[in-house]
Specification:
665 residues; mainly alpha; 0% strand
Length: 665
């Protein structure tokens, strides 16, 4: 799982001693986290600083001062050596001095200095691991805190609109806010990263190294490969399963896409189409229960809604999203006259399950523990234990049934130890960018709380939208897209919910959980929306297609990211519940609306659809979103009539529903 934010870290070409140091630090971090998760929980001012210290050291080891392509040299090692020591200082200072800090009325000067060092080191680490944009945003918020008549930079206030003005804060006050309390760097975002997120990142790493990825891909192929456009449908299903492991759209693309994209091209999908389908399907992995990436854990903490409840209410929206992608893929296969793969080319479901059924046990255990009411951190710990137990049991069974020997047992133990170390290192590496994004998000949260910026931003949003909810949602969508061009999904979600959340809930009356789900879903759109569509670009690299063309295809197939959050707003019962008939009705019309949108986009279902029918589908879809029962019923009826006409047309002209295969240009 886990929202790694970027493609899983690849080991750069570095000296062996550096690689060994990375392994040692990564394993120590994983052991520390497992101890805190399953043996002895730690207080927040022990857990968070120590976790951040490990991450900072790991970051400066993985990411050299002058980039991956240049050797560090004396200057590079001098810079990175100082920063590594600063990372150690960050990890030990607060836990070592917690009693003095807690009993001091005013911060000591040495605490202020360490606070400044911590803030600067976090920004530099974020620049290396997450990207320059994240660092710039954090720095801008810090400068904003200094702007004001009593701040360090009072002249900056002259450059800001009046609504953004505030009193301004001194360096000592801001440094204290950032590192000596629970509202800055060591605040809620880092707290979630240091507890729930890491343990599930580690869970995903253990699944990955034990071969669960191949199992999910083979199972998807076995289930759908013989259908029209089988590899594309397998991509949808495999990406839903892989999303529970990687939690990263880009990692999902490069993992499943390496298998699915070439096969899609072979069956007749255009390269850009194949890459776009994989990108859209992989993006859905972020919203797929039971593991929905880092954002779901943050959402649980922000809203005080139990994680298991967020998982339960997210099942149907995730089903709608993948159903929409699946239907679009099916329609594209029909339009291009594709067939499925032959039985001989595909694995058999029985054989796949016989080989990898033990990979399902950790998922089942995880769901059972969540429903049983265990904390997410403890659930993650036991899920990791279940992965290890299942893998060991499977390995011992295979060993016992294949001429066991003492040498073979020794080799088996060494391989198990190697895979365990590899999983711990991989989990630690994958946690670096998400932890640093959350640390910088803590800077933003701290400044927003200090200056009251959240309320001011809400007032601006209300003014720009004129009190119109649809315009406000469009503004949120645009803001998420702009933020997503430079920020990972988790960071974009945190920044956006801090700024627009109060407006959505207090000014427009949207329930708190739905407001967070809207922002969470919209934060995914930068993966598939041009001009910066990272998952689309990853799909283009594998497909050998043009990045922008592939991104537009991904944007088309991922339309559910835009429609489903709107449905949450205007048809609340599918999220917050209600009378059973009302919930069932809203679920039914949501399916109808998504199906209508897919057909309107492609202009085809059983047969080609005339333009006038496609245009008539649009008011029907809008009516389904309208919060009035009679209007909804009219919209459903209109969509139903148009789809029935398409079915009649296909029966009247059988030839037009089975076009010839389109050659791959």
């Amino acid at each position: 799982m886990a929202d790694t934010l970027t493609e899983p870290q690849r080991k750069p070409s570095q000296p062996w001693i550096v690689l060994r140091a990375i392994t040692v630090v990564g394993v120590l971090l994983s052991l520390f986290q497992l101890y805190a998760a399953g043996v002895q929980p730690l207080g927040l001012f022990y857990q968070r600083p120590i976790h951040l210290g490990f991450i900072l050291v790991l970051c400066f080891l993985i990411h050299p001062a002058f980039g991956m392509d240049r050797p560090r040299g004396v200057l590079g090692w001098t810079i990175d050596g100082i920063l590594i020591l600063c990372g150690v200082l960050v990890g030990v200072w607060v836990p070592w001095n917690i009693d003095i800090i807690a009993n001091s009325i005013f911060p000591r000067q040495i605490d202020v200095i360490v606070g400044i060092i911590t803030t600067l080191v976090v920004l530099e680490a974020a620049r290396r691991a997450v990207g320059l944009v994240m660092t710039i945003i954090g720095a801008v918020f810090l400068l904003y805190a200094f702007a004001g008549s009593r701040g360090e930079l009072p002249w900056l206030a002259d450059w800001m609109p009046g609504i953004l003005n505030h009193r301004g804060y001194s360096l000592d006050r801001l440094a204290s806010q950032m590192t000596l309390g629970a509202e800055g760097i060591f605040g809620l975002p880092l707290g979630v990263a240091a507890t729930f997120i890491f343990v599930f990142v580690l869970f995903g790493a253990f699944l990955e190294v034990t071969g669960a990825g191949k199992f999910f891909i083979d199972l998807a192929y076995a289930a759908t490969g013989r259908q029209r456009g089988g590899p594309a449908k397998a991509a949808v299903i495999a990406s839903a399963g892989m999303g529970s492991i990687s939690g990263s759209a880009i990692a999902n693309v490069v993992t499943t896409g390496a298998f699915t994209i070439p096969l899609m091209k072979r069956l007749g999908y255009r390269p850009a189409q194949a890459g776009g389908i994989e990108a859209a399907a992989s993006t859905g992995g972020q919203i797929m229960p039971p593991l929905m990436g880092a954002g779901a854990f943050l959402m649980s903490e922000f809203t005080r809604v139990p994680y298991v409840d967020i998982v339960l209410v997210s099942i149907f929206p995730a089903f709608l999203y993948f159903g929409a992608v699946y239907l679009l893929v099916h329609i594209a296969a029909l339009k291009q006259g594709m067939t499925g793969m032959s039985r001989e080319e595909l694995p058999r479901v029985r054989e796949v399950l016989a080989e990898g059924w033990h990979f399902l046990l950790p998922i089942v255990a995880l769901i059972w523990l969540l429903v049983a009411g265990y904390s997410p951190m403890r659930v993650g710990f036991y899920a990791i234990v279940s992965v290890v137990v299942a893998a060991v049991a499977r390995a011992l069974w295979t060993f016992a049934t294949n001429a066991p020997s003492l040498t073979g047992f020794r080799d088996l133990c060494l391989r198990g130890l190697k895979l365990t170390v590899e999983a711990m290192e991989l989990g630690a590496r994958n946690a670096v960018p998400v932890t640093l994004a959350c640390a910088v998000a803590g800077i933003i949260v701290g400044v927003v709380g200090l200056t009251g910026l959240g309320l001011k931003f809400s007032a601006m949003m209300l003014a720009f939208s004129g009190g119109n909810l649809v315009l406000a949602l469009i503004l949120v969508m645009i803001a998420s897209l702009i933020l997503g061009m430079g920020l990972p999904v988790t960071a974009a979600y945190i920044v956006l919910i801090i700024l627009v959340g109060p407006a959505l809930t207090e000014e427009f009356g949207i329930p708190l959980l739905i407001a967070h789900l809207i922002v969470f879903w919209y934060s995914q759109d930068s993966n598939v929306t041009p001009p910066v569509a990272l998952a689309g670009f990853a799909g283009a690299a594998i497909a050998g297609s043009k990045p922008m063309e592939t991104s537009f295809q991904a944007w088309k197939y991922a339309k559910g990211l835009y429609l489903i959050p709107l449905f949450m707003v205007f048809n609340e019962p599918i999220i917050i519940g209600g009378p059973v008939p009302l919930v069932l009705w809203n679920g039914f019309i949501a399916i109808v609306a998504i199906a209508g949108a897919a057909v309107a986009l492609e202009g085809f279902l059983w047969a080609p659809m005339p333009l006038w029918q496609r245009l008539l589908l649009v008011p029907g879809i809008i009516a389904v979103f309208w919060p009035d029962l009679m209007v909804e019923a009219a919209g459903v009826a209109l969509i139903g009539v148009l789809l029935a006409l398409n079915r009649v047309s296909a029966r009247s002209n059988p030839g037009q529903g089975t076009p010839q295969p389109v050659p791959d240009p």
